Amino acid sequence: MKFKALAIDIDGTITDMDRRLNLRAAEKLRALDVPVVLATGNVLCYARAASKLIGVCCRIIAENGGVVTDGFDREPIVSDHIHECEEAFSFLSQVLHMEKLDSSLRKTEIVLRRDFDIDAARALLETTGLDVEIIDTHFAIHIKSRKINKGTGIAKMAELMGLEVSDFVAIGDSVNDIEMLDAAGFAIAVGNADNVAKGIADYVTSTTYGDGTAEAIDYLLSEGML
């Protein structure tokens, strides 16, 4: 099957662990004949800058699906679940020391430094009845709505592009990519991916981080899938 678009995570998938952009991966993404969607847990301004620098501007799923835009100057579609996330943070921070990151830029979720007991936080959260979850992407910890994820983000993006979700190949590495990988027509996990992401992927690269993405694109092109 030939797919019509590619959705790809940024940190840990196009970059290495310290967020240095893999230039081989960027070059291969830039050369594709299909639209490339950047799907990240990071904020919109970061993703917009990355899309410009990589050369795939500017279809973006940001904040783990909470923010979606199909053009650099387009008004983004922003979910309205931040208040429940704020309520969860207010409750948890009475017991645990939690430091917010990017708080002035986040529109749909709360992101925290990775220096507290996430299992304790999850156990406390279960007592609240709030429809939010805590996920660890290895770069930060996110308090986010269960209703929003990269899977809902790719569905909205497909709608904006006049495509089906099954028209997409998705590439990722972390727990926040699972819904996107599961929804896409073909899913690839890079070699450094979490085991749960590898478990649902149709193809797992032998190489890691951005080298894995370069390998994935070579594979897709060799198989006539893009």
TrEMBL record:
The residues that the entry says bind Mg(2+) are D9, D11, D173, D177
Mind listing the GO molecular function terms for this protein? magnesium ion binding; phosphoglycolate phosphatase activity
Q: Does the keyword Cytoplasm apply?
A: no
State the UniProt keywords alphabetically: Carbohydrate metabolism, Hydrolase, Magnesium, Metal-binding
| Record-listed E.C. numbers | 3.1.3.18
Substrates-to-products reaction catalysed:
2-phosphoglycolate + H2O = glycolate + phosphate
Q: Where are the transmembrane segments?
A: none
Q: Which domain of life is it from?
A: Archaea
Could you state one GO cellular component term attached to this entry? cytosol
Mind telling me which InterPro entries this protein's record contains? HAD-like_sf, HAD_sf, PGPase
EC class (word): hydrolase
Which residues participate in substrate binding?
A: K150
Question: Is RNA-binding one of the keywords?
Answer: no
Q: Tell me the active site.
A: D9 (nucleophile)
Cofactor dependency: Mg(2+)
The positions making up the signal sequence are none
Alphabetical list of PANTHER family matching this protein: HAD SUPERFAMILY HYDROLASE-LIKE, TYPE 3, PHOSPHOSERINE PHOSPHATASE
- HAMAP family from the UniProt entry: GPH_hydrolase_arch
Give a short account of what the protein does.
Answer: Catalyzes the dephosphorylation of 2-phosphoglycolate.
Q: Which family does it belong to?
A: Belongs to the archaeal SPP-like hydrolase family.
What name goes with this protein?
Answer: Phosphoglycolate phosphatase
| Species annotation | Methanolobus chelungpuianus
